[in-house]
Amino acid sequence: MQDVVNSEFDVQELAQFLAPRLENCSGNLQLERIGGGYSNPTFFMQFDNGGDYVLRKQPTGPILPSAHAIDREFRVISALAQSDVPVPKAHLYCDDSSIIGTPFYVMERLEGRVFHNNALPGLTPAERSAIFDSMNETLVALHKVDYEKAGLGDYGRPDGFLQRQVSRWTRQFEKSQTRPIPEIDELSIWLSENIPDDNEETSIVHGDFRLGNLMIHPEELHVVAVLDWELSTLGHPLSDLGYNLMAWIMDKSEHDGLGGLDLDALGIPSMQVYADLYFKRRGLEGRLEPFYIALAFFRLAVIFEGIVFRTKKAGKSTAEIAAVERYGAIFSRHGLKIAGE
Questions:
Q1: How high is the pLDDT of residue 62?
Q2: Which residues in the chain are classed under CATH 3.90.1200.10?
Q3: pLDDT at site 45
Q4: Which one, 97, 100, 202, 338, has least CB within 10 Å?
């Protein structure tokens, strides 16, 4: 690990703050940035005395009031520590922005593998099958948690979640729209007219449940941690399943999706088999309604249009804009196809 010169905050001040509060946090502190993108900045932290942790903070600069709520992330992983949902141990939350410029929290550093390509290249069919099975089992475990007993009864509004999701993302598109996309408008109308009758079921929902947000054991074939909880809330559990299933519909050019691949040869279950297994494990009758996958694609389409809006506003190059501009129409078309429109 190499030292990171980070102009965002004073690493030495952070080290002095943590030394009396966490074990083995004396001596020099080395930071390594993990990943990137639009999520909360995350760092490996390693001290000379052996302390080895992960720090997650808000981005610097102005943010929307409800965005990047790392206090909620810290709260939910703390609450899930005694559940069957694998999460890193939450060690410390700091709301004092004077330390590194924003609130932050520190959690356990786990060893494992994170796969961003849903086809899991380099693994055997049996290994892929086991990982997908563990992903399914982990999602079921999350949705079986009694959120009241976990102390999360006020973590979100348990009523009207699906209606609020459709309304929220429709408004978000209206605020960030830079060009006409009829498919998004059409999908918004279809969703508002087809909200399922069972829309009051409530559980903890992750909000971004996908293979790339899971850590797999370094050698074994099961999930050791669910990561990136910034979109978690109380809501309809099938919205998580619908989001999870988008990977089967996207193709390789769309975030390494599974669309068009020979799943039998890869050892990966079909979308229907995977969804049926989730239903069986939860003891649910029937099959997944297309609404939940269509809602996931609608939301993702609007998110990417928001990225287009910010990219254009920042004066980025034509190439950078084009790299994200295609997704809004693509994802909303996927949603319409699932909806049967």
A1: 47
A2: 125-339
A3: 93
A4: 97
The residue with tokens 């309304």 is: 167
Residue 307 Cα to chain centre, angstroms: 16
User: By CB neighbour count within 10 A (0-12 exposed, 13-18 middle, 19+ buried), where does 316 fall?
Assistant: middle
Q: Does residue 67 contact residue 60 with C-beta atoms inside 8 Å?
A: no
3-state secondary structure of 22: coil
* Residue 227 structure tokens: 């990561």
List, for residues 214-236, the tens digit of each pLDDT value. Answer: 999 999 999 999 999 988 999 99
Q: Which of 170, 140, 164, 88 is nearest to 274 (CA)?
A: 140
pLDDT at 322: 84
Determine the residue type at 265.
Answer: A
Question: Cα-flanking dihedrals φ and ψ of residue 104, to 5°?
Answer: -155, 165
Q: Which residues, 6 or more positions from 95, have their beta carbon under 8 angstroms from its beta carbon?
A: 71, 103
Tokens of 37: 């993108």
Tell which residue, 47, 89, 88, 40, has the closest CA to residue 230: 40
Q: Is the dihedral of CA 103, 211, 187, 307 positive or negative?
A: positive
All CATH 3.30.200.20 domain ranges in the chain, comma separated: 11-108
**How confident is the model at residue 306, as a pLDDT?**
86
